[in-house]
Design brief:
- The complex is a heterodimer of chains A (799) and B (292).
- Chain A has three domains: 12-40 and 493-639, Aldehyde Oxidoreductase, domain 4 (2-Layer Sandwich), CATH 3.30.365.10; 43-145 and 212-260 and 267-300, Aldehyde oxidase/xanthine dehydrogenase, a/b hammerhead (Aldehyde Oxidoreductase, domain 3, Alpha-Beta Complex); 304-479 and 643-791, Aldehyde oxidase/xanthine dehydrogenase, molybdopterin binding domain (Aldehyde Oxidoreductase, domain 4, 2-Layer Sandwich), CATH 3.30.365.
- Chain A is an alpha+beta fold and 799 residues long.
- In chain A, helix 14 packs across helix 15.
- Chain A contains 18 helices and 32 strands.
- Chain B has 292 residues and is of the alpha+beta class.
- Chain B has three domains: 8-53, Uridine Diphospho-n-acetylenolpyruvylglucosamine Reductase, domain 2 (2-Layer Sandwich); 62-175, Uridine Diphospho-n-acetylenolpyruvylglucosamine Reductase, domain 3 (2-Layer Sandwich), CATH 3.30.465; 180-286, Enolase-like, domain 1.
- Chain B has helices at 15-25, 38-43, 59-62, 80-85, 87-92, 94-100, 106-111, 114-120, 126-133, 151-154, 228-234, 241-254, 265-286, and strands at residues 8-11, 29-32, 51-54, 65-67, 71-75, 137-142, 145-150, 155-157, 160-161, 168-175, 180-187, 197-206, 209-218, 225-226.
- In chain B, the strands form four sheets. Chain B has a five-stranded antiparallel β-sheet. A four-stranded antiparallel β-sheet of chain B has the order 11-12-13-14.
- The N and C termini of chain B lie far apart (58 Å).
- Classes of the chains: A alpha+beta (799), B alpha+beta (292).
- Chain A binds chain B through residues 128-129, 132-133, 136, 291, 293-295, 660-663, 700-701, 705, 713, 716, 718-719, 721, 723-724, 726-727, 783-785, 788-789, 792, 796, and chain B through 1-3, 5-6, 40, 44-45, 105, 187, 189-194, 196, 261-264, 266-268, 270-271, 274-275, 278.
- Chain A: It comes from Actinocatenispora rupis.
- Chain A: Residues 37-146 form the Aldehyde oxidase/xanthine dehydrogenase a/b hammerhead domain.
- Chain A: This is Carbon-monoxide dehydrogenase large subunit.
């Protein structure tokens, strides 16, 4: 079924769809007019008659037993309609809910609070102000318990047990996981000329989408029907989970994800607030809106990273990399809410072998509970590949420094070669395609790599601190296949419906949901390319479970690898049907017809042809149709990907460090990405620019830190810094094209590549700049203070 | 959206009316100008304000930037953007443009005022360091008249000023001396962030000798710091790198920073040293004829 077509003969870069819309190629985003005119429709724009507002009381402390909750004053506050406590939910069996990782999480705390910001009670009131004011009238008595803040001490014998809600739980162990062959790896290490090890911390960061999480729950007691507008990256999966959690029949639940102001993984989990709003609507019989504020978003919703890693790399003395070995301590917070396929508790961290041809590799991970917000979600990490890439790219650059070799040339000498694909890695992944050396050489060409090294040498002589960092990465995106990958038993395969109207205009319906990635354009272009219909004539419908086919949603860069394939294949199904109808119209056998983008013509007789629009009218018309054709050109499909797609990239970063203040300035950043066939290069560039800014933020300033009592120190955007245009250089992007052999149009995902690949390039550049100080390792975020401390020989660890 | 608790609100139509409203409501009242510090604190419920008096309509009365031969008068409602864009101000006190370029972002600078900046009394606030090193006087008005409080006495502690109930800061008055210049340097983790440390310096030369110099710092203690000992060291000396180094070392030893998310105390102390050197060097370099 999945057939590979050659890439378009005209390069997508040269095509300007804004002049002559044809399919793949540059094209302004169809959704942008409503965004730039302020006419987007977000969850907070939903206003229903009689709608009430909800606010959540959160724990002020990291770890405490709840002695009592007195809501009487709050209930008496003007405008308050309901006050809900954990105890009230427990009576309905709703005090706990499953997480995406088969753990459980408190909806509202009953026994204990386990992180600062945990949901304790909620108020439903006539307006947002009354709801918020009433929170201060709820009197909660806490019996403070010692918190577990440092993951390194979570498994100490005397550590307080956080998850005493779990039967028989006597420690803070969450899970252990391993990948690769430990014995084989140890054997290679034992015989290696050179072994370099490096401690690497990837601190806790937050996706911090511009729009926070929230919902409007509207339960109709007469119909028994729940409509939920919510900021969800996965509306279908959420609907099924609500059915399982709340006991509502699934066909009576409709989840609508309207426009979403950024997700980055933050909007994959189900948060207690959604459940509370649903309960609030059930209780009051009115629609209930809950939109968390910025502090709530930063302190209580899904964080990312928080891996304490030790990596080792074995090589020959002339620089042939032989093996990798790594040990990870993963901080999962108070509840394991990781959004990852169930069989992959560490996500796809197993691809930590990167782009290199290795003899062996092994990873062991221990995950622990701490008194911190739960999650471990994406943040544009492709299920933990960000951590994996950061580790291996730090290690490889460290090896180059130890061997006195150039880090780019060391990589070129160790890449998996094009003739080795499909390439089975020592940890069990099968990479589909790539030409890693070509990608890095292109980045070196754009950067003027040799000139940069010469400039660096001159500057060093003058005492200036210039650094050049390299990061080359391989991503694994587009989950499933369904037999290996599921979320709580729901297989990762996605549907697509295509309807072609009589006049040849089309509507394509998708299970995935855009959070700003431009789906309304990209998917119209995919269908347009296949059917020869202008993308302007194709509407994309998504984000409404009543109006779209089932599927697992958008995260892990899976929309184009999975639903992009579905859209192309469903269009080909339409085309196959159109061929049969065209053969009747032209009175020739179907096999005598040639598809020329947008029409079928009789082979050898270009004068005789019918357009897809004429065929569509015929399919709905009054005339006879060929035998076996029921009419209409509509089709549907569910696409179960045979493998992930493996995009790759090569990034080069140039930094200058002020020797006096230790401030880091990113002077240049060259990003060459290979995501296979490029559907809309402009959208790809936008995705890459955004991801690079993400990566720069993590490298230089972002961290969700905690004090020893477990107080979150990143609870506002004054404290949790995200980069501005003033820190970001003019991104220099380039590309190579190595189509995926198993994807119908050869495309790979690209949404997270830049976030995954860029932090290592920046950190490697700063370490390179500080080489005169003998520095070989330094942890993010590279604030001026930490860089200066490193220059003095004693950097403060970030966690 | 974060929402504040309930509060009453009035818009003053004149300075006299604002003072009358302040007198009537006593300590429960707060003035609001640009609002970029107070409103977030109210929304985060760190500030509990019963009664808010909006003085933005007083911009005609208090939004002035007056450059006189011997004094610069800045109305309390002069916006950051107006201070940034004033070429006349930059000509006599270039330190203001140095500082305003790195204070917050354009959106905040469009609204925020010098009076609000000083009255917020945030220990990390940049203009407080600037005004301290310039030996500014803060003109405080009440229904009974005006008094002038030197900048060194204006801040009483974090978020505390010399402005009493029923009083209002109306003007910042800065002496202008010949053969003088000034400079400001800030290290921040990101554009628009509060300073890790910022340093301000003002120098007056006469015949190649420093006759007066002042340095001020933000974010190195519970409130903005001026260091008279550094002034003592500099006075009567010929400017030069060796002198700047001694001044920097003395400044570093004289301040009392604390470790926080912006940096360690040790790093901040180092910055005091480094930025003292830089601001003195730039200040002297800006005195075109060397004060001869």
């Amino acid at each position: 079924m999945t057939t590979v077509e050659r890439p378009p003969t005209r390069r997508a870069e040269e095509i300007d769809n804004d002049q002559h819309p044809v399919g793949h190629g540059r094209m302004l985003r169809k959704e942008d007019p409503r965004f730039v005119r302020g006419r987007g429709r977000y969850t907070d724009d939903v206003r229903l008659p009689g709608m009430l507002h909800m606010a959540i009381l959160r724990s002020p402390v990291a770890h405490a037993r709840i002695v009592s909750v007195d809501t009487s004053a709050a209930e008496a506050h003007p405008g308050v309609r309901a006050v809900i406590t954990g105890e009230a939910l427990a009576a309905q069996g709703l005090a706990w809910m499953p997480t995406l990782s088969n753990d459980v999480q408190a909806v509202l705390a009953t026994d204990k609070v386990r992180f600062q910001g945990q949901e304790v009670a909620c108020v439903v009131a006539d307006d947002r102000y009354a709801a918020r004011d009433a929170l201060e009238l709820i009197d909660v008595e806490y019996d403070i318990l010692p918190p577990v803040v440092d993951a390194r001490h979570a498994l100490d014998a005397d550590a307080p047990v956080i998850r005493d809600d779990l039967e028989g739980k006597a420690d803070n162990h969450c899970f252990d996981w391993e990948a690769g062959d430990a014995a084989a790896t140890d054997a290679v290490f034992a015989d290696a000329d050179v072994v370099v090890s490096q401690d690497v911390v990837y601190p806790r960061v937050h996706p911090a989408p511009m729009e926070t999480c929230g919902c409007v729950a509207d339960f109709d007691p007469v119909e028994g029907r729940l409509t939920l507008w919510s900021t969800s990256q996965a509306p279908h999966a959420h609907r099924t989970l609500y059915a399982l959690v709340a006991g509502l029949p699934e066909h009576k639940i409709r989840v609508i994800s309207p426009d979403i102001g950024g997700g980055f993984g933050n909007k994959v989990p189900i948060y207690p607030g959604y459940v509370c709003a649903i309960v609030g609507s059930l209780l009051t019989g009115k629609p209930v809106k809950w939109m968390e504020d910025r502090s709530e978003n930063l302190t209580s919703t899904g964080f990312a990273r928080d891996y304490i890693m030790r990596g080792e790399i074995a090589a020959t003395k002339d620089g042939k990399i032989l093996a990798l070995r790594t040990n990870v301590l993963a901080d999962h917070g108070a509840f394991n809410g990781t959004a990852a396929p169930v069989k992959y508790p560490a996500g796809f961290f197993g691809v930590f072998t990167g782009s290199y041809d290795l003899k062996a590799a092994y990873c062991h991970m221990t995950a622990v509970y701490t008194n911190k917000a739960p999650g471990g979600v994406a943040y544009a990490c492709s299920f933990r590949i960000t951590e994996a890439v950061y580790l291996v790219e730090r290690l490889v650059s460290r090896l180059a420094a130890e061997l006195g070799q150039d880090p780019a040339r060391l990589r070129l000498a160790n890449f998996i070669r094009p003739d080795q694909f499909p390439y089975a890695t020592p940890t069990g992944w099968v990479y589909d395609s790539g030409d890693y050396a070509a990608t890095l050489r292109e980045a070196m060409r754009i950067a003027g790599y040799d000139d940069l090294r010469a400039e660096q040498a001159r500057r060093r002589e003058r005492g200036e601190l210039m650094g050049i960092g390299v990061s080359t990465f391989t991503e694994a995106v587009g989950a499933g296949p369904r037999k290996h990958m599921d979320i709580l038993g729901l297989g990762m395969a996605d549907g697509c419906d295509l309807r072609v109207h009589p006049t040849g205009k089309a509507v394509v319906r998708l299970s995935v949901q855009s959070q700003g990635q431009g789906h309304e354009t990209t998917f119209a272009q995919i269908v347009g390319e296949e059917l020869g219909i202008s993308p302007d004539d194709i509407d994309v419908v998504h984000g409404d479970t009543d109006n779209t086919p089932f599927g697992l949603g958008t995260y892990g860069s899976r929309s184009t690898p999975v639903s992009g394939a579905a859209a192309a294949l469903v269009a080909r199904k339409v085309r196959d049907k159109a061929r049969v109808i065209a053969s009747a119209m032209l009175e020739v056998a179907p096999d005598d017809l040639e598809w020329v983008k947008g029409s079928f013509q009789v082979a050898g007789d270009p004068g005789r042809s019918v357009t897809i629009q004429e065929i569509a009218m015929r399919a709905h018309g009054a005339g006879d149709l060929p035998e076996g054709v029921e009419g209409s050109l509509d089709a549907q499909i569910t696409y179960n990907p045979p493998n992930l797609t493996y995009p790759n990239g090569a990034y080069i970063c140039v930094v200058d460090v002020d020797p006096g203040t230790a401030q880091v300035r990113v002077r240049r950043f060259v990003a060459v990405d290979d995501c296979g066939t490029r559907i809309n290069p402009m959208i790809i560039e936008g995705q890459v620019h955004g991801g690079l800014a993400d990566g720069l933020g993590m490298a230089l300033m972002e961290i969700i830190a905690f004090d020893p009592e477990g107080n979150c120190l990143g609870g506002s955007l004054m404290d949790y810094l995200i980069p501005t245009a003033l820190e970001t250089p003019d991104w220099e992007t380039g590309f190579t094209v190595t189509p995926s052999p198993h994807h119908p149009i050869g495309a790979k995902g690209v949404g997270e590549s830049a976030t995954v690949g860029s932090p290592a390039a920046i950190v490697n550049a700063v370490i390179d700049a500080l080489a005169p100080y003998g520095i070989t390792g330094l942890d993010m975020p590279l604030t001026p203070s930490r860089v200066w401390e490193a220059m003095q020989g004693h950097p403060t660890p970030p966690i | 959206m974060q929402v504040p608790g309930p509060f009453e609100y009035d818009r003053a139509g004149s300075v006299d009316q604002a003072i009358a409203l302040l007198e009537r409501r006593g300590e429960t009242a707060r003035l609001i100008a640009g609002g970029h510090s107070l409103l977030p604190m109210m929304k985060l419920r760190l500030a509990d304000v019963e009664y808010l008096i909006d003085i933005n309509d007083l911009h005609d009365e208090l939004g002035y930037v007056r450059i006189e031969p011997h004094v610069v008068q800045l109305g309390a409602l002069a916006r950051h953007r107006e201070l940034l864009e004033s070429d006349e101000l930059a000509a006599v006190l270039p330190i203001f443009r140095d500082a305003e370029r790195v204070i917050a972002d354009p959106v905040v600078r469009n609204r925020g005022t010098i009076g609000g900046s000083l009255c917020q009394a945030d220990p990390s606030e940049d203009l407080s360091a600037v005004c301290s090193c310039l030996d500014a006087g803060c003109v405080i008005r009440s229904s009974t008249g005006e008094r002038v409080v030197p900048m060194t006495e204006f801040h009483r502690g974090p978020y505390e000023t010399a402005v009493g109930d029923g009083e209002m800061l109306v003007e910042v008055r800065i002496p202008v001396r010949p053969y003088s210049s000034s400079a400001f340097e800030k290290v921040e983790r990101r554009a628009g962030d509060w300073a890790v440390v910022s340093a301000a310096a003002a120098v007056t030369l006469s015949r190649g000798t420093i006759v007066d110099a002042r340095v001020g710092y933000a974010a190195v203690g519970p409130h903005t710091v001026v260091l008279p000992a550094v002034s003592e060291l500099l006075r009567g000396q010929a400017p030069g790198e060796h002198l700047y180094e001694r001044a920097g070392a003395l400044a570093a030893a004289s301040c009392d920073p604390t470790t926080d998310m912006r940096g360690t105390a040790e790093y901040k102390r180092h910055l005091v040293e480094e930025l003292t050197r830089r601001t003195l060097r730039r200040s002297v370099g800006r005195i075109a004829d060397g004060g001869s």
